[in-house]
Amino acid sequence: MPISKRIVVKVGSSLLANPDLLTPRWAFIQRLLEDFRLLRDQGYDIILCSSGSVALGLKMIGETPETAGLRDKQAAAACGMPLLLNAYKQVGTEYRFDIAQVLVTLRDMEERKRFLNTKNTIDRLLDAEVIPIVNENDSITTEEIRVGDNDRLAAKVAQMVQADHLVILTCIDGLYDKNPEEPGAKLVEEVEDVSQYLAVTTGTSDLGSGGMLTKMQAANMAQNAGCVTLIANGEHDSPVSSVLFNKREHTRCLAHTEPASAWAAWLTDRLQMAGSIVVSSDIVDAFEKEKMSILREHVQSIQGPYVKGDVIHIYSEDGEEIARGLSNFSSEETMVLTRNMNMPPEQLLGYKTRGTIVGKDNLVRLEEHHLQWDSPEDSASVNASSS
């Protein structure tokens, strides 16, 4: 269950960096941390997921948001992070609290052991009344191995620390039923089914990497873990508490009344697809009746690469994602097992194993409230039974 009075706050780059000067917006940081002080005094634990390092570092390397490529953004992140932390440190000292930086990568969120190690670090900082500031390590990540947006990263952190609220501060009042620039657009005050609004969530800001789509994806991840998501405009005197205490308009994405366990939430809510398999119709039908392991004879095709211990996505032959589970083998080992059904697994792999691809205790069937991933292209898959 969520831990009472624990909040994850995500702040977008457009709030932290002046879009023309690419310098810190000190007035906003002042308002934000003053509000943190108010909430701390009321017994709240706060974890901050902050964008801004890339935007603040662009000027130092002579680039703009429009001209910067991947290498430029990596270098800008290295330049901008000290500026961002210095701003938080200076203002935090004024309000009598310390800050700490927690840099993470995609693997820290997707690998179970590293996920728990990160959780332990954040929990220890909160015990010491230090505010953790979580950032993706943009200076070393590439497009293939990065989270890509701090909205979903914040949702993973909320899941990790069992927060009861995720507050996403952005440059508009929340989710609208259509493009907010169109006449007649209305603010959606409450959301139960995130999937109903995915079609109206296109567009990103010039400075940030996420738009309303990533915020809806983050909200779905949070609600699966029993966490309420609040999306609101950050330009307010009390940007977090005014939303938390329902004093101004915003979008509230409700948590599910029966949230998944921490283990199931970690298994099902992924930031990136490691790999996938397509399974036969008989095992799909069996899933409807009871929890089943996936054996090598059930696998029809494989899309990788992935390694042992990765969470893989499991599809029916119709292309519907039905489950996610922890793989006992790499994609290469899975291929060997499935293409040589007449040989014992131990003989094929050289070590003792039963050849179970995903054990039933490490597999979670997707429910209707989970956002499904599109099935990988057929051309990227390899038939498991071909020679």
Short key terms for the protein model shown above:
alpha/beta, Carbamate kinase, Archaeosine Trna-guanine Transglycosylase, Chain: A, domain 4, eight-stranded mixed β-sheet, 33% helix, 19% strand
Describe what this molecule looks like in 3D.
With 387 residues, the protein is of the alpha/beta class. The protein has two domains: 260 residues, Acetylglutamate kinase-like (Carbamate kinase); 111 residues, PUA domain (Archaeosine Trna-guanine Transglycosylase, Chain: A, domain 4, Roll). The chain is built from 13 helices and 16 strands. An eight-stranded mixed beta sheet has the order 3-4-2-1-5-7-8-6, sandwiched between helices. A six-stranded mixed beta sheet has the order 15-13-12-9-11-16, with helices on both faces. The longest helix has 25 residues. The radius of gyration is 22 Å and the shape is globular. The N and C termini lie far apart (48 Å). About 2% of the residues have low confidence.
Summarize the helices and strands and which ones pair or pack.
Blueprint: E1 6-11, H1 13-16, H2 26-41, E2 45-50, H3 53-57, H4 70-94, E3 98-104, H5 106-110, H6 112-127, E4 130-136, H7 150-161, E5 165-170, E6 190-191, H8 212-224, E7 228-233, H9 241-244, E8 251-253, H10 262-268, E9 276-279, H11 281-287, E10 294-295, E11 299-303, E12 311-315, E13 321-326, H12 331-339, H13 345-349, E14 356-358, E15 363-365, E16 382-383
Parallel strand pairs: 1-2, 1-5, 2-4, 3-4, 5-7, 6-8, 9-12
Antiparallel strand pairs: 7-8, 9-11, 10-14, 11-16, 12-13, 13-15
